[in-house]
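User: Structure tokens for both sequences below?

Assistant:
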Amino acid sequence: MTSSSQDNSCYDVFINFRGVDTRDNFVYLLHDDLKRDGINTFIDEEELLEGEKICPSLLRAIRGSKILIPVFSKRYAESKYCLLELAEIWNCHISDGQTILPIFIDVEPRDVRNQTGSFEGPFQEHQKNSKSTSIVDGWKNALKEVGNLKGWPLKGDANIR
């Protein structure tokens, strides 16, 4: 990690996730365990409503975190906000060297990187409805690159205990 990203760190860990899939089970347990171990962790407590933008403080939290944990789940690709965050996560990894530790809950890494399986339909909808192909191309690249990273596939009721 570069010294500039370490010096500007406001969190040890940023968790990127689709709330409806994982907020009340895996992410809650992960956040609780990290906090208990004294690890300063950011999770977005609010679900963004349609039409809302990712706030600058959320982008600062991504940029200011040492470790970025995307938690991919079956409905992850339905959320353009998850995808926007993921693109920022990938950009930070490339530019500042933050560590990315992907977790795959009931999805295969190949489906993430290729936008197949539960990622295919929602991703096609984003492509069809997007006004900017460059934004969707950025999401596609981030999914491909992060899906290629070594991560942790979990099956069933993902429980970290």
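Moving on to the next sequence.
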Amino acid sequence: MNQYGLSVVDDFLGTEKGLKILNEVRNMYSAGAFHDGQLVHNMRTDAQSSTSTVRGDKIRGDKIKWVGGNEPGCSNVWYLTNQIDSVVYRVNTMKDNGILGNYHIRERTRAMVACYPGSGTHYVMHVDNPNKDGRVITAIYYLNINWDASESGGILRIRPTPGTTVADIEPKFDRLIFFWSDIRNPHEVQPAHRTRYAITVWYFDKKEREEALNRAKLENSKTNNANAVAQLAEPDSTTSPAPSTVTAAAATSTSTPASASASTVLSANKSLTPASMTTGTGSLNANVANSSCPASNEICT
């Protein structure tokens, strides 16, 4: 992370546990539990919005489901997120940890389980956190057995900035990747030609997250519009192209860098259920929404 802005771990959990997670994800998908990844526009003027109107399926083609881990049939996904929590907690609290020492990580989102159903589905170049919403680390776990990118595509391409270096990450089974969530790592999912599964969680820096929530509250007090507080929502699924960089033409190209925010509408009165996730050496405290909360209209930290 210090040198390249990303880190790849292969054989993270082993074949047996990885297959159990894959089976849970396949069962959820077969049951019709996934929905289209949506696009939510940032707060900006109507004039700005009109210049960047793009069909959602031209930007992203994945289908998603949010998982807290306490839902029926998700125990192995819960185990996965627990193990990722343990890694993040340990490296964030260890001595001489470089850039990670600048952050205080004690919260994360729920797990976003995503499926690209083949047929060239993709996600154009974007940034997970261009607007300082608190997310500092993106962690993605892949579940694709015998993946051959030369035939199936689906590469995660990261363009660390500054510079012209490109990192192409194949979504291989039991592979875990970490990278900075902000503008240091624009990335895209290139067209996938077979079903491609991934599970993503985002980790928050305490200070930046508090500042973002305070900004949202201030904006709400100015507009008296609870829905407008939005922008700090569950960083799921939902991205919107930056008004100055994405046009309808640009969005059809997977090679055009484009900054996109990941946020949905925050319901001001939505309550969250605090939870503590075991990390092996301590607790990573997270406010994880209970399973009854609809992921599409809440924040889950």
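User: Anything stand out in the second?

Assistant: The longest helix spans residues 75-93.
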